[in-house]
Design goal:
Blueprint (H helix, E strand, L loop, with lengths): L6 E9 L9 E6 L4 E8 L4 H18 L7 H22 L7 E10 L2 E7 L3 E6 L2 E4 L6 H7 L5 H5 L20 E6 L5 E5 L1 H4 L4 H8 L5 H14 L6 E9 L1
Antiparallel strand pairs: 1-10, 2-3, 3-4, 4-5, 5-8, 6-7, 6-9, 9-10
Length: about 240
């Protein structure tokens, strides 16, 4: 199979889940610029929805407007910092939005080059040759405990603090994202998702669903259905990007 990439196909689906009355997840896509973003908002009332929408809008706008002379990594970091400032300033100006924030997972494609970025516990995965690999690292208390060897991955899945994140957009005056540079091969599938999926569906099941011989939109539906069948305790967003020759 040729490794040359001429285009990327995508599909996205979001769902309230089985128990939430509203959806605080947001997603955004710029096909022309190869930008894909998923955010999972948090905060009282509609604050989470505002935070996630602000983040998606700012990151897309600033990356679409990127000067060709600006290195991609620098542009991504600047866009995320600007989104963080926009959310933080909005919350400072309106007490009803105090404490709002959002996670973020995204990627930008430039030919075979894929730059993945994240803040918080929304995740990025890559399926290559039928094997699933988590690219991003959760910014969460349980993930820190796993890295330090205090608990196992299995214990982390059932920890009472598994939803406590250590980094988010908008909750502090500044934030730093993680960046991961990859080279795509034809057939690779990238998954960006909120923890409404990963909190309900284990990685082996996600891997099996991504390997189904189905169109991307039907795979998104299968992932969301699996999360709802497992309880659907949170909003669920899945965004798939497939490299094609």
């Amino acid at each position: 199979m040729s490794k040359s990439i001429v285009r990327y196909a995508f599909a996205v689906l979001t769902d309230n889940g089985s128990t939430r009355p509203s959806n605080e997840d947001s997603s955004g896509i710029s096909v022309e610029h190869g930008i894909y973003v998923v955010c999972d908002g948090m905060g009282g009332a509609a604050a989470g929805e505002i935070a996630s929408s602000l983040a998606v809008g700012e990151v897309l706008r600033l990356l679409e407007e990127r000067d060709a002379e600006t290195p991609l990594e620098e542009a991504v970091v600047e866009a995320i910092r600007a989104a963080n400032e926009a959310i933080y300033s909005r919350a400072e100006a309106d007490f009803r939005l105090n404490g709002m924030g959002t996670t973020l997972a995204g990627l930008v494609t430039e030919g075979r080059r894929v730059l993945v970025f994240n803040v918080g516990d929304s995740r990025s995965y890559r399926l290559r040759k039928r094997k699933l690999e988590q690219i991003s690292h959760d910014h969460s208390l349980v993930e820190e405990q796993v890295r330090m060897g205090r608990i196992t991955h299995e214990e982390a899945l059932h920890s009472p603090i598994r939803n406590v994140i250590t980094r988010a957009l908008g909750t502090q005056p500044s934030v730093e994202p993680d960046l991961f540079e990859l080279k795509a091969e034809a057939g690779d599938i990238f998954l960006l998702c909120s923890d409404g999926l990963t909190g309900e569906v284990p990685d082996p099941q996600i891997e099996a669903l991504l390997n189904a011989d189905l169109p991307l939109d039907e795979i998104c539906t299968s992932l969301v259905d699996a999360a709802n069948q497992a309880g659907g305790h949170d909003n669920i967003t899945c965004l798939l990007v497939r490299a094609e020759k």
